[in-house]
Design brief:
The chain has 528 residues and is α/β, with parallel strands linked by helices. Helix content is 30%, strand content 15%. It contains 12 helices and 15 strands. A hairpin with a 2-residue loop joins strand 4 and strand 5. The longest helix has 27 residues. The protein starts with 11 loop residues before the first strand and ends with a helix. The mean pLDDT is 94.
């Protein structure tokens, strides 16, 4: 339908005099869209392979109206799962140090700055991979500046060559170095886009959330951000540090590629490098050796705080930390139990999986923690994320840090009913539920949850405290040494105290062997 016949046209302006900003690297030009000014693909650094990023500059005016390259991946994932996590794909190139900005106006002053770190572990993903990563709605509704970042990943960003010369001393963390370079760029330039460099909130999901913890444990990132929102990003061994030396792996790469010098790895075509790595990685995984593709503990990065403790210097940085009810368990081939089963029938179904002893131990704790849920939902309850997350929150609070806990608990109407999965909460925090299909049924409920989550995040960005956006009477407090106050977002959003503290370790004890068996069977079927 044409504009003027029921649909209002968007305001769009792009010309030689519009949306011009002078940065430390040179002048950039974006465009105006409705009430926002948008810039895409701004270079914040450049880098030689395996080396630290350097400042970048250009002559004239750089057109920044197209997304920049994303980091090359090790494998080409088949398009799938688009109804659950709608994706965007984009050209890949190692020259991927670029960022995107959505701002209410370059003439604004001291707006909160929200910096998005994308998921995909430390080996995949991009700043625009998910459609819900679009920052326009957040910038407009939150009256803030939104930035999303691309950086080096996998062996380009995390391959330890330190045994081969001082120039490679921190090659095991160059992906993190890229993020730090982008945060320096933000400190130097974001005021020209309306943002406050003294009020930067990092937010990220999955690997993006884990990167916030990595930055907290990296002294060179100190002072570059003031707050953090970690969404499904405390994953324990799933995203474990890479310790020890990469020497053996690098030597195997050289042999596979028939190269004589490490310097040659800097120029070998990426496709050849990736193919060689993929071919030798399984043997290194099998023997538990260094494989790269994750942060490397050294003097630059002090390691996972659950293993090494939080750096005391970062305890002034408040955090919001949470996950979703089902996470990856919601993707596993678990039987669908029909609605209408009696309580006894549901208990028998659980006992058929966990055994009589496991069912007897877990069901009462689950009913107490989740009185609104069917008993059979216990079988898709996440404990892989929640177990280290409970430890993380407790440790941070014990050390004196301020940390708020949350859980996303809203099912979606897919295949009848789908428990919350990894990534489901991203559109809610971005104020983008209109961009994904699974939020359209129960729209009024989902819109209310979106408002609660989004406004909590905006409160946190503005003041360092997310409280004030939950239903009347629900006070969201930071967790303490012995008390975890969890905002449970769902059909009835409420704050629950220590609600699953006893359930998670007991359930993990009985479910872990079953989960490992299911995952092995799933991987075997995929391989064949």
């Amino acid at each position: 339908m044409a504009a003027g016949k029921g649909i209002m046209a968007h305001r769009f302006l792009y010309d030689a005099e519009t949306a011009l900003v002078k940065t430390t690297g040179g002048t950039v030009r974006g465009y105006e869209w409705d009430d926002l000014v948008i810039f895409k693909g701004i270079p914040y650094a450049k880098a030689q392979r395996f080396h630290r990023p350097e400042k970048v500059s250009w002559e004239g005016t750089l057109d920044c109206t197209s997304y920049g390259y994303v980091c090359p991946l090790l494998t080409a994932d088949p398009p799938q799962g688009e109804l659950l996590v709608p994706h965007r794909y984009w050209p890949m190139h190692e020259n991927c140090q670029n960022l995107n900005i959505w701002t209410p106006g370059t003439g604004e002053k001291n707006l909160p700055v929200m910096v998005w770190l994308h998921g995909g572990g430390y080996f995949a993903g991009s700043a625009i991979e998910h459609e819900a990563y679009d920052g326009a709605a957040m910038a407009e509704n939150g009256h803030c500046v939104v930035v999303s970042i691309n950086h080096r990943l996998n062996i380009l960003g995390y391959l330890d060559l330190s045994d081969f010369g001082e120039e490679y001393e921190n090659s095991g963390n160059t992906g993190t170095d890229d993020i730090i370079a982008s945060l320096h760029w933000i400190q130097d330039n974001i005021a020209s886009f309306g943002g406050d460099p003294g009020n930067v909130t990092l937010f990220g999901q999955s690997g993006g959330g884990a990167k916030i913890t990595t930055l907290l444990q990296t002294p060179e990132a100190d002072g570059l951000f003031q707050k953090g929102i970690i969404m499904s990003g405390v994953i324990g061994p799933v995203l474990a540090d890479q310790n020890g030396s990469g020497k053996e792996l690098v030597e195997a790469l050289l042999a596979k590629l028939h190269l004589s010098a490490v310097k040659d790895l800097e120029t070998v075509p990426y496709a050849d490098l990736a193919a060689a790595y993929n071919s030798i990685k399984p043997e290194f995984e099998k023997k538990g050796a260094y494989t790269g593709c994750a942060p490397h503990r050294n003097r630059f990065y002090l390691g996972d705080p659950l293993q090494n403790g939080f750096r005391k210097e970062t305890l002034s940085v408040p955090l919001v930390v949470g996950s979703v009810f089902g996470e990856f368990t919601s993707f596993l081939p678990i039987p669908k139990y029909p609605a209408g089963l009696s309580g006894e029938e549901e208990k028998k179904a659980v006992a058929a999986v966990l055994g009589e002893e496991g069912a007897a131990a877990c069901i009462p704790l689950f009913e107490k923690a989740y009185p609104e849920r069917r008993i059979t939902d216990l079988l898709v309850l996440d404990f892989i994320f929640r177990t280290p997350e409970q430890q993380y929150i407790r440790l941070r609070a014990e050390d004196g840090g301020r940390v708020w806990s949350y859980l996303f608990n809203k099912d979606a109407k897919i295949n009848g009913r789908q428990t919350p999965w990894h990534c489901i909460d991203i559109p809610y925090l971005f104020h983008n539920i209109d961009l994904v299909p699974y939020t359209q049924p129960d729209y009024e409920v989902n819109e209310r949850i979106q408002d609660e989550i989004f406004e909590s995040a905006m409160n946190f960005a503005r003041t360092g405290d997310p409280d004030g956006a939950l239903p009347a009477g629900e006070k969201w407090l930071p967790s303490a040494k012995d008390f975890e106050y969890t905002a449970v977002f769902g059909e009835k959003t409420e704050v629950r105290t220590n609600y699953d503290r006893d359930l998670i370790p007991v359930f993990g004890k009985y479910m872990m062997p079953i989960m490992q068996k299911r995952m092995a069977e799933t991987m075997s079927s995929v391989a064949h």
